[in-house]
Design a protein that fits this description.
Elements lengths: L1 E6 L4 E7 L6 H7 L5 E7 H17 L3 E7 L8 H14 L6 E6 L1 H13 L5 E6 L2 H7 L4 E6 L2 E8 L4 E5 L8 H17 L2 H9 L1 H5 L3 H21 L14 H10 L7 H18 L5 H14 L10 H10 L3 E2 L2 E9 L2 E8 L1 H12 L10
Helix pairs in contact: 5-6, 5-9, 6-7, 6-9, 6-11, 6-12, 10-11, 10-13, 11-12, 11-14
Length: 370
C-alpha cells in the first residue's frame, strides 16, 4: 500500500492507494481517531456490490455504521437530494465529532462531501472512491458540491477529508465505459504535468483497459501525486489549481446542454480537452505534432461526440454561465506541450466557438458500450 501526504497551510492528510487493501480500512479509521458511530453515504449500484462487505468489516472492527443510499448519477447532486441526506443525518443523531464516509464515485464524493461540510457546520469526512475517475480526481483536494440548473458545481465548499482510501481492486466491477471516463482524467494529469503518464497510456493502452494491476496502480499513484502537488501549492484555486480545470470549461458546457444525462463527466472532459487543445493549436502555442498525439489518444479511448443530440448554441450558452468567466474573457490553462501548461486570461468567446465547431466536425470517435 502506498501513501501520499497532501500538505496544506492548515491541514495535512494521507491518500492511501493499493490493490486489495479493503480489509485494512477499519484499522486505518482507528489510526486516524474515527469514532465508532459513522454514516456511510453511497449509491444503489455500489451498495449492491460492496455495502454488505463494508458494513461487515466495519462492525468487526468495532464500528457502528448507518447507511444513506441515493440514486446513482449526476442528477443526485441536487439541493433536493442534499436536503434528504441532511434530514437522515439529523435522524441518525450524527454528532459533530463523528464521520461521514463517502463510499462511491465522483458524484457520491461531491454530494457526501458537501453534506459533511455543512451538516453541524462541518463533520469529519473520509473519501472512499470506487471509480477510477474519483480515485484520481474528485476524492483529492477538498472540493465538494452540487449542481444548479444553470451550471455544474456552482454550489459547494472546500472541505478536506481525514484521509482518502483508494483500492484499485474495486475497478474490476466497473463497466468499461466507467474505466474510460476515469482514463480521461488520467490523460488530463499527463497533459498538464506528467508526460510519463501520457506516454504510459499511449504504449500500454490495452493493458490499462484490461486493468493490469501494476500499470493501473502506477497510473493512479502518479495521477494522485499530480493533483496533490497542485493542490498543496494552491488550495483555493487562486491560479495554479485552475490547471486542473483543463477540459472542463467546454466539457461542462457539453454536460449541461444535455442536462447531465447523455455523457459521463469523463467523456465530456475528454471532448473539452480536445477542444481546448485546439484553441492552443490555433494560437500557435501547441505544435501540430503534440496536438495530434492528444487527438490520437482521445480517439483511441473511444467515446462519441453525440452531434445529433447536441445544440451548438446551447453548449455555448452554458459555457457562458461557467464560473471561470471574468468579464468578457475566460481564464484558462492551455497546453504548450504534453506535460506543460500556461495560464491565459484573454481567451475570447470566438475561440471557444471555433473549438466547439471543431468538435462537431469530428466523425472518427466511436461509442463505447456501457
Amino acid at each position: 500500500m502506498h501513501k501520499i501526504i497532501l500538505s496544506l497551510k492548515n491541514t495535512r492528510y494521507p491518500i492511501y492507494i493499493g490493490n486489495e487493501i479493503f480489509s485494512k480500512f477499519p484499522s486505518l479509521c482507528k489510526k486516524h481517531g474515527i469514532k465508532p458511530h459513522l454514516a456511510v453515504i453511497t449509491d444503489k449500484i455500489v451498495s449492491e456490490l460492496y455495502l454488505d462487505e463494508l458494513l461487515s468489516i466495519l462492525k468487526r472492527g468495532g464500528f457502528s455504521p448507518e447507511v444513506i443510499i441515493v440514486n446513482p448519477g449526476e442528477t443526485s447532486k441536487s439541493l433536493s437530494v442534499l436536503s434528504k441526506i441532511i434530514t437522515q443525518l439529523i435522524q441518525m443523531k450524527l454528532r459533530r465529532d463523528e464521520t461521514i464516509v463517502a463510499f462511491g464515485g465522483g458524484v457520491i464524493g461531491d454530494l457526501a462531501g458537501f453534506a459533511s461540510a455543512i451538516y453541524l457546520r462541518g463533520v469529519n469526512l473520509i473519501q472512499f472512491p470506487t471509480t477510477l475517475l474519483a480515485m484520481v480526481d474528485s476524492s483529492i483536494g477538498g472540493k465538494v458540491g452540487i449542481d444548479h440548473k444553470l451550471g455544474k458545481n456552482l454550489i459547494g465548499a472546500f472541505h478536506h477529508p481525514v484521509f482518502v482510501f483508494s483500492d484499485i481492486s474495486f475497478l474490476k466491477t466497473l463497466p468499461k465505459r466507467e474505466i474510460i471516463c476515469g482514463l480521461g482524467e488520467v490523460v488530463k494529469c499527463g497533459i498538464i504535468m506528467d508526460a510519463e503518464i501520457f506516454k504510459m497510456i499511449e504504449t500500454n493502452f490495452e493493458s490499462v483497459l484490461n486493468l493490469n494491476p501494476k500499470i493501473v496502480q502506477n497510473l493512479v499513484l502518479r495521477s494522485a501525486m499530480v493533483k496533490s502537488r497542485i493542490v498543496s501549492k494552491d488550495e483555493k484555486e487562486k491560479r495554479l489549481r485552475m490547471v486542473l480545470n483543463f477540459g472542463h470549461t467546454i466539457g461542462h458546457g457539453i454536460e449541461a446542454s444535455l442536462n447531465y444525462k447523455r455523457l459521463k463527466h469523463g467523456e465530456a472532459v475528454m471532448f473539452g480537452m480536445l477542444g481546448e487543445s485546439f484553441i492552443s493549436l490555433n494560437r500557435g502555442i501547441l505544435s501540430l505534432d503534440e496536438f495530434e498525439r492528444i487527438k490520437r489518444v482521445i480517439f483511441k479511448i473511444g467515446v462519441v461526440f453525440p452531434q445529433k443530440l447536441l445544440e451548438r448554441n446551447l453548449i455555448l450558452k452554458y459555457i457562458g454561465y461557467d464560473k471561470k468567466i471574468l468579464s468578457e474573457r475566460l481564464n484558462m490553462y492551455l497546453p504548450i506541450k504534453i506535460g506543460k501548461m500556461k495560464f491565459f486570461d484573454d481567451i475570447n468567446f470566438d475561440e471557444i466557438e471555433r473549438a466547439v465547431d471543431f468538435l462537431f466536425e469530428q466523425n472518427k470517435i466511436k461509442l463505447t458500450s456501457t
